[in-house]
Amino acid sequence: MQSRPILNAYALAKQIGEHLVGWRAEEGRDYDGTPMPDWASLTRDGDGARLGIIVASNRRRTRVTVRPRWPRFRDGSTALRWPILEFTCSTSRSAPALARAIQRRLLGKYDVLYPLAVDEVRESDTATVEAWVVAKRVARTIGAEPPPQDDPRWRPNDSPVRIYGGPAGVQAIKVVPRRREENARVHFEVSLDEEAAVRVLNMIDALTRFDTRPGTVPTDIGREGNDSKLQCRASRGEGDGHVCNQVHLHR
């Protein structure tokens, strides 16, 4: 005779966890802390990998879905590019059978992809925080309004940090988080007449020729020497008798 279906996800997760070495069951809770009987998870000690255990009923029989969870960025989002790995079966299956199915159908792929996802999240979180630190330092240097306190609830990962104020004629100052091996980049726009634009472009060209190792950047360009390399690029386009320049300052 078929065994009685287990309707509580946490109870089912505990039974499965007894047959998966290094995994422990955790009760599912809503955002306000309310227990969710249809949701639970199995968390692996050591690396924090998680498997969602979701129990749902339909007209025919009770079903359970086992779904690996991906690490979250500091803003609470999950990388969308990671695949959805899951399977669904009846809760009438025994806990040992469910544990074997998890090992056979999920953990092979999940164990390969999960460390890559963790590295991606760590890299993105670090770059996002660094951009705010750079923006604060730049704002202080140019006398602009410092960016507000960094808060992952309001600034999504990899989004630029905007700086308001600064020198006259300079707009849209922002710091873009670094990508891969690059450093954080400072972008801004200036609108100048032709003569002033040529002087600025020549200065930028000269800056790229400086030896910018620690202590070698001249103080009259508004930067103190540090262990960062300062590079500038500029593009120019003419219109209405003015030259508009978009300057990308790479730290």
Could you walk me through the main structural features you see in this protein, from its secondary elements to its overall organization?
By secondary structure, the protein is of the alpha+beta class. It has three helices and ten strands, in the order αβββββαβββαββ. A hairpin with a 6-residue loop joins β6 and β7 (170-176). α1 (9-17) packs across α2. The longest helix is centred in the middle third of the chain and has 48 residues, at 95-142. The chain is elongated, with a radius of gyration of 27 Å. 20% of the residues are buried.
Labels describing this entry:
elongated; 5-stranded antiparallel beta sheet; disordered N terminus; 28% helix
Radius of gyration: 27 Å
By helix and strand content, what is the structural category?
alpha+beta
Instruction: Give a count of the beta strands, DSSP E runs of length 2 or more.
Output: 10
Specify the overall morphology.
elongated
Q: What percentage of the residues does DSSP assign to strands (E)?
A: 25-35%
Major beta sheet summary:
5 strands, antiparallel
Runs in which pLDDT lies below 50 for 5 or more consecutive residues are 1-6, 212-251
Distance between the termini: 70 Å
Order of the strands making up the biggest sheet? 1-2-3-4-5
Q: Kindly state the mean pLDDT as a whole number? A: 77
Helix content: 25-40%
Separate helix tally: 3
Order of helices and strands: HEEEEEHEEEHEE
Please outline the helices and strands:
Blueprint: H1 9-17, E1 23-29, E2 35-44, E3 50-57, E4 62-69, E5 87-90, H2 95-142, E6 161-163, E7 170-176, E8 185-193, H3 194-207, E9 231-239, E10 242-250
Antiparallel strand pairs: 1-2, 2-3, 3-4, 4-5, 6-7, 7-8, 8-10, 9-10
Helix pairs in contact: 1-2
